[in-house]
Amino acid sequence: MWKVFALLVHILMVGYISIIYFQSTVLNGMRPQATHRELGLKPPADRLVVFITVGLRAESFFRNNCSDLPSIQKILIKEGLAGKSRSCAPTQSRPGHIAIFGGFNEDPAAALTNFQKNPSHYDTVFNRTSGSWGWGGRSVITIFKDLITEGSPIHFEMNTLNEGMGTYGADNWVFNKVRNFLASNDNVQMVKEKLPSMFLVYLGDLDLAGHSAKPNTDDYLKILNNTQHGIGEMYELFERTFNDKRTAYLFTSDQGMTDSGAHGAVSKEEIEVPFVLWGAGIKRAAPNAGESFGVGKDGVQLPLHELEQLQMAPLMSALIGLPPPMNNMAMLPLGYINVSADHEAQALHVNALQMLAQVERIQQIHQRDRITEWLPIFERLDKRRVQNYKHQFERLMKLNCIHEAMQCSQDLIRLALSCMEYYRDYYRIPLCVACIASYLGWFYYLLAKQARPSSASKQDWLSIPIIMLFLLEVMLAVMFYLHKVPCWTSFYLLVPLPIWMIALRERGLHSKCVEAPFMQLAWIVCTAAFLISTTHYRELVSLGYVAVVCANNWRAFTRPTMRFCLWIVLVIILTAFSLLRPKLGYQNKCLLIVSMILTLLRPLVLGEPHGWRVWISNSFALLSGGYIVQRLLGGKPVSQWLQGTVWCYMIYALISIPYSNTRKPRTRVQLILFNLSTIYTLLCLSYESIFMQVLCTEFLLGMEVHEDSKKLQEDSESDVDEADKPAMAMTSVQHIISSYRYALLIIFYLYFSMIGTGNLPQINSFDADTARVFVRELCPVLIGTLIVLKLFIPNIIIMSSMYAFCASARQNVRGIFICLFLICDAVCIYFFFFVRNSGSWSGVRESLSNLLLAHGFPILLIVFSWVPKQFLSAIPLTMLPMLRWKGDVRLSQPGQSLA
Questions:
Q1: pTM of the prediction?
Q2: Residues 688/596, Cβ–Cβ less than 8 Å
Q3: Which of 194, 200, 43 lies closest to 130 in space, CA to CA?
Q4: Tens digits of residue pLDDT in 471-510
């Protein structure tokens, strides 16, 4: 039952992470502000054409006086302005496009989907137009294609790379689509009737060129020249088609790119992107910071402007007379639009009203309760201050104090941003406290369970501390209801008290609360600190492995034997190999073939007594797997029947183990190693199976060395295996030390098996080709399941060996897993404070990986700990004589259990 409670607690902990760091910040329920036409203002432009490239950094644009973009050069010399726009991390296409057209940074909740989709509905400039058209790649067009609009639907066309376009044909496909659209008189007339209208021209060839050819190389510049030439042609085409000087143009990029062709982080090359504004309504003499850049052969100096990428949304909206998107979080930059001061002040006022609408909505959510006066609020912006601003703005405009009115609007926008930030983090501190309290309650539960003997009675539910906690829980629930705290927030704020009630009840009536507290604290803190350090220095895993296995066999160093020397050689080989392993993703057909041969030769050389059915089935499975890999690497189709055969083998190999005719633990473990090594090899890409088989052989040999040294120290002449030898009674402290020793072995062998095979312990470090022998098409759930199975096969073999040969491990499964949870959850507490929901794309994924894997390892180990028991057992109707060795297990010490 305690395992179910452990699973529930860790699910709740993941829920804390989600609600604290990854709650959606996108507000809904607001109404759009009035358009400029509704306010009696004529917008400076009727149409806006946006050209967006992917991966074009500012340095590539402005280098050599913009000589790589001659068509843009001509535009800049005649009209318009240019500058640098600072994007926000993660510098990916989706966050960049949402910032440009929505005016807000990517929703933190999108990090849970790897920034592939937004879990909330949001508003963009496209939603407010009377007509929007766009052409481009599927990955970006799908961001906006299904937006909910109040006006005309959004007309976007998407391309895919299999439309006969060639490697760099996406931009030409887009240009041809624009030409065909404007060649139709019906389309042109429709655009003229829909005011305002907007066009998105998405150009993705530069991103592909940057990744493959790298920025500023000859191939990259060739693609850049084609793209900028097409932009110049499209500009002239739009001007000829409409010929009314009422079209504005924007050219920019969603993110930059490093010299290596990467993006997603926060370097200057990735953050700074160029922008060019020209056409109707653009003021050439916009304010700037005093910097300039050269254009053309003569190096004509033009002012270099600077904007935040978020400011593009309110700027584009103001150009065509629209209010900013309802979710916009940016202030309209002043001086960029060629309108009167009164017009610009009104546009900024609409921006401020749009911000206030979000403030009113978030205040409505947080101040809808019956006890508001008892709780903190953002006092600097209340309803009175909002009304005062509206009256003050109207008064200043009537007095023709335009500058003061704009300053008033800017101050209010900054205040509104502070207010929204305050309420978005309103429950963060209480939730963090609740999460830590839950962790502490869970630790107390584990320590109390460890200290209480299996036969001792628990505390009664009606004890005074538990009753007091229950009454406090009821009181808090009533308070949260009166305050109308959001449902899930209330739930997680109430979670710690039930955990503590269960923990208090777990303590024995006449036993200690914690056994050897300082010693356990040292075990937990030192091990957790070492595991945390391995996330920064992967080589430390190899060092930890050497330290743990040598400490486990410390007696053997005093009296070395030939077996000990062989074991030391294997440890050195494994450590050296893990430090010099090939890079992640490295695939080697020759090494894979060698691993298949080794899988068959190892048991043959070691003289393992397997039946003929085992040899035939494993040999056939490896031959089938090798044939499938050969066909896949040659680009040839694979028969479903052949893959079905491999699936049948895997099922047979797992089920046949507990029903085999092996009668000794050693023979059964050899069968487990042979069958699971075959399955593991079928899931490999290169050398992984070689490493895994050597690692498991080292563990089995290390156990024999441990037993030999123990017997020598005790000067015993007995030939009886430890499995058949009655377990010696241990003191409670010795029992705890033994539990931590086995827990460390399991943890470090698990980590070391992943590091050594190149599968770094991160969610994003696993290759989908791992499942290529079993799965033909991309199926994330099935592939993920097979990858998890591959990761835990070494530990299944190691735990099976422990259960078969170590009486102290066999009789103390519960104690070992309690120590595992104490160590892993100490690591979780550390990573909890370093979760990232913004910034570098890789940094966000790495922080999530560290935390989720630290949570997931003990849970998955508990799940897979059931497997070795089944492998070493059979159903009651076919119980084997070999199971008699379990009869010698003694369960007299605290925390000992078979379950």
A1: 0.81
A2: no
A3: 194
A4: 999 999 998 888 888 889 999 999 999 999 999 988 866 6
